[in-house]
Amino acid sequence: MTTIAVGNTQMPAVGLGIWKIDRADTAKTVRDAIEVGYRHIDSASDYGNEVEAGEGIRQAIDEGLCTREELWITSKLWNTYHRKEHVRPACERSLKDLGLDYLDLYLIHFPISLRFVPFEERYPAEWFADPDADDPAMQIDPVPLAETWAGMEELVSAGLVRQIGVCNYNSGLLNDLMAYATIKPAMLQIESHPFLTQENLIRLAGDYGIAVTAFSPLGALSYVELDMATDADTVLTAPAVLAAAERVGRTPAQIVLRWGVQRGTSIIPKTTRRERLVENLALFDFELDDKEMSAISALNRNRRFNDTAVFCEAAFNKFYPIYD
Questions:
Q1: How far is CA 164 from CA 9, 159, 250, 252, in A?
Q2: What is the pTM of this model?
Q3: Residue 322, in any domain of the structure
Q4: What span, in angstroms and rounded, lies between the C-alpha atoms of 236 and 87?
Q5: Cα 94 to Cα 44: distance, rounded to the nearest angstrom
Q6: For residue 225, is pLDDT > 90?
Q7: Does residue 106 carry a catalytic annotation?
Q8: Total domain count, the chain
């Protein structure tokens, strides 16, 4: 499989994202993904299925499908653990749940700091400070991102993680981070697909030597079931995508995913279906030509599906934009 440079090492360009995979399906999905060739698993505390993901990893290793060293495992620091003293315990909890001694990559999940929720009170902590309150809402705990990053750097020094990075940062936050980071971020994970190409942000990351992972690389498919998109928002029926699919004899989804890796980003599509796991990985025996790449990039409409200004207000009773 093709890899991308992340810091001083290489990461598989295609990973399995486990966001929204039911706990009951997670272990089998992770194990099956490894069997068909995946070596990159993207998880997070907030997904609520790291114990099951760890079981799938353990099964694969026990069956001799891979070694731990052949895997790239990413997890993420949740919003309630941004104070420096909470960063290491949060990382250690993910390590325990995943059954691992170290993470290949640990990311700040959002540049949003919420009131701390102890593990014994609720885990995963999710978004509400008190979901049982009469009028539950997010509660911001104003922690400087520099403090959180200092805690992330200590994880590297302690040998708990190999690389650190950020998710959902904009260009201003990225520029600011590079001004104070002692250990520079190795990864920027952002929503990106043909309807949200984020060319300037990806170029900025490249100028800093930061790799980019695109989550939701197929766009609306991740959000229809959450009522954050409709079937009409799909990119898979765009003429530019269909024309490329016909020329190379691949599915529209493979065309969109190939566009993602061919532009130099890692991608983390999600599926629980074995045939789709195979399909999503079969991207490296064909190429899109320059005209096809340009035509797909021209579909950009700056359509962000994972927008905190929308979902935080609608679901968590707090207007909190992080993108302009």
A1: 12, 12, 35, 33
A2: 0.97
A3: no
A4: 39
A5: 8
A6: no
A7: no
A8: 1
Q: Which two tokens stand for residue 68?
A: 């731990």
Contact 174, 166 (CB under 8 A): yes
Cis bond before residue 252 (omega within 30° of 0): no
> Domain range for residue 271?
3-316
- What is d(CA 108, CA 305) in angstroms, rounded to the nearest whole number? 20
Helices (H), the chain: 23-36, 50-62, 84-98, 145-157, 171-180, 199-207, 239-248, 252-262, 274-281, 290-297, 308-316
How much is the average pLDDT of 230-238?
91
Q: To 5 degrees, how large is the angle CA 72–CA 113–CA 266? A: 25
Which CATH number belongs to the domain containing residue 101 in this structure? Answer: 3.20.20.100
Q: Give the count of alpha carbons within 13 A of 46, CB side only.
A: 15
Q: How far is residue 233's CA from residue 290's CA, in Å, rounded to a whole number?
A: 25
The structure tokens listed for 304 are 């962000």
Assigned domain for 323 exists:
no
Catalytic residue of the set 47, 106, 169, 223: 47
Radius of gyration of the chain (CA): 19
Domain for residue 295, yes or no? yes
In a domain, 99, yes or no: yes
Predicted confidence (pLDDT) per residue in 141-198, tens digit: 999 999 999 999 999 999 999 999 999 999 999 999 999 999 999 999 999 999 999 9
- Three-state SS at 194: coil
Task: Locate 293 and state its tokens.
Answer: 């790449």
Across-strand partners of 72?
40
> What is the structure's pLDDT at 19?
96
Q: Is the dihedral of CA 320, 315, 311, 13 positive or negative?
A: positive
pLDDT tens figures, 279-309: 999 999 999 999 999 999 999 999 999 999 9
